[in-house]
Amino acid sequence: MSTAIGNALWSPLAHMPSVLAGGRTIITHGSGTHLTTDDGRELLDATAGLWHANIGHGRPEIAEAAAAQLQRLETYQSFGSFSNDVALRLADRLAALSPIADPRIILTSGGSDGVEVAAKLARLHWQLEGRHDKVTILSRADSYHGLHAFGSSLSGPDIYRDGYGPGTLVPETALFSSTDIDDLERRITELGADRIAAIIAEPVIGSGGIIAPPPGYFERMQELARAHDILLIADEVVTGFGRTGRWFAVERFGIAPDMIVTAKGITSGYAPLGAVFVAPRLWKRFFDGPDAPIYRHGVTYSGHATACAIALANLDILERENLVERAAELETVLVRELEVLRDQPGVVEVRSGAGFLAGVQLEPEIPGDRVAAVALDRGVLLRVIRGNTIQISPPFVVTEQEIALIVRVLRETIEQFA
Ligand code: PLP
C-alpha cells in the first residue's frame, strides 16, 4: 500500500481516515484482465473495475482511436444546431443496435447524468400531456441509480439520501420490492396511478447485490405500467453492451422500455460517456413543427467527440471479437465454477446465471472487506457490495483458467474466515 502521493484527493464514497491510515491501492497500468500497482504488484481484475472494463484494460486500438481524434478535433459542442461528426455517427450506430425501435439518442457524461436525463424527460412528457400530477418515479428497493439528485433519490438504500436536510433530493420518488412484484401493484394503488410518471429498474440489480428478476417479475411490471400509463425506464448502466450475453438485458428479460439508460460499457470505461435511448412515444413531439418544445438538459460534454470516437472503437472491438457472445459463454463457465461455493460454510447464497456477473453473499460474521483484502494480497481484485456480497464480473476477455483462479482464491479465502 502506498501513501506517498495523493493526500489531496478526496475519494468518493470513502471513509477518508481509514483510507489515509490503510493506504490506497494505486493502479498505474492495465493490460487485458490485469492491473499493475505503483509498487509493482500484478492483480487480476475480477470485477472489470466498477463493471466498466468489458473489453479489458490497456487496448492499443482504443488509444489509437483517441489519439487520432484528438489530433483532428478534441471536441466541439453538440449543442443547439452545432454538433460534431463523431457524435452523429455514434448516435446512428447506437440506434442501429437499439432494442427500442426507431429511437433517438441523448448522449450524456455518464450513468448518473443519464438517470437525470431519463427522469426529467419522463416528468416533462406528462407535463406536456397536461397530466400535471404525474410526477412520482418509482424504483426498486435494492437498486442503485447513481448519485445525482434523481439517482440519489431513486437508489434504494437510505445512505444515499440521508443527511442533506430538506429540499436537496427529489421528494416525488418511492420504492417497491425488488423481488415481490405484487408490492409494485400495492404502491401504485396507494399513490394513485395518476400521480406516477415512471418506473425505473435495473434488469439485473448490480451494486445492490446482483439480484436477478424472479420469474414473471418484469412481465407483470410491464402489464402494470401499460395498464396505468406509466413510463418504463430500464437502467442498463451495468448490463448494457453485453454483460448479460445480449447487447442489452431488456432483450434477455423481455422488457419493452420507453427509455434505456446506458454508460460504462459504451466505452468500456476508456472515456466518461453515456447514452439514453428514447422511444418515439417520447421523442416525437420534440422533433416536429414550429411549436415543438425544447428539452433543456445537456452538459458541455454531451457528445464529446473524443469520448464518442472511443465508443465507436469499443463497439468495433465488441463486434469484431464477438465479445457479447463470449460473455454468454463465460456465464456458463462462471455458473459451473461457482457450484463449489454453494455449500461452503460462510456462504449464504451464490447469485449467478443472469449474465456474466455473480454475487457471493457471505454470512454476516464473515467480514467481506477482509475477504476482499486477503484476496487482493493473493493477486485477485474483488469487491464487496451491498449485503456483504462479493462481486464477480470480469472483463469479457478473461480466460476460463482465470475464472477458475478467481473462484479458487475466493473459496480458500472464505475458508480462512469461516
Ligand atoms: N445506474 C446504475 C445501475 C449503476 O450501477 C451506476 C453506477 O454504478 C449508475 C447508474 C451511475 O453511473 P455513473 O457512476 O456513471 O454516474
What does this structure look like?
With 418 residues, the protein is of the alpha/beta class. It has 2 domains: 136 residues, Aspartate Aminotransferase, domain 1, CATH 3.90.1150.10; 258 residues, Aspartate Aminotransferase, domain 2 (3-Layer(aba) Sandwich), CATH 3.40.640. Helices cover 36% and strands 16% of the residues. It has 14 helices and 15 strands. The chain has a 7-stranded mixed sheet, sandwiched between helices. It has a 4-stranded mixed sheet with strand order 1-2-3-13. The protein has a 4-stranded antiparallel sheet with strand order 11-12-15-14. β5, α6 and β6 form a beta-alpha-beta unit. α3 packs antiparallel against α11. The longest helix is centred in the N-terminal third of the chain and has 18 residues. The protein is globular. The mean pLDDT is 96. The structure holds pyridoxal-5'-phosphate. The site of pyridoxal-5'-phosphate (PLP) has 15 residues, from α5. InterPro entries: Aminotrans_3, Aminotrans_3_PPA_site, PyrdxlP-dep_Trfase, PyrdxlP-dep_Trfase_major, PyrdxlP-dep_Trfase_small. Belongs to the class-III pyridoxal-phosphate-dependent aminotransferase family. This is Aspartate aminotransferase family protein. Keywords: Aminotransferase, Pyridoxal phosphate, Transferase. It holds the Pfam family Aminotran_3.
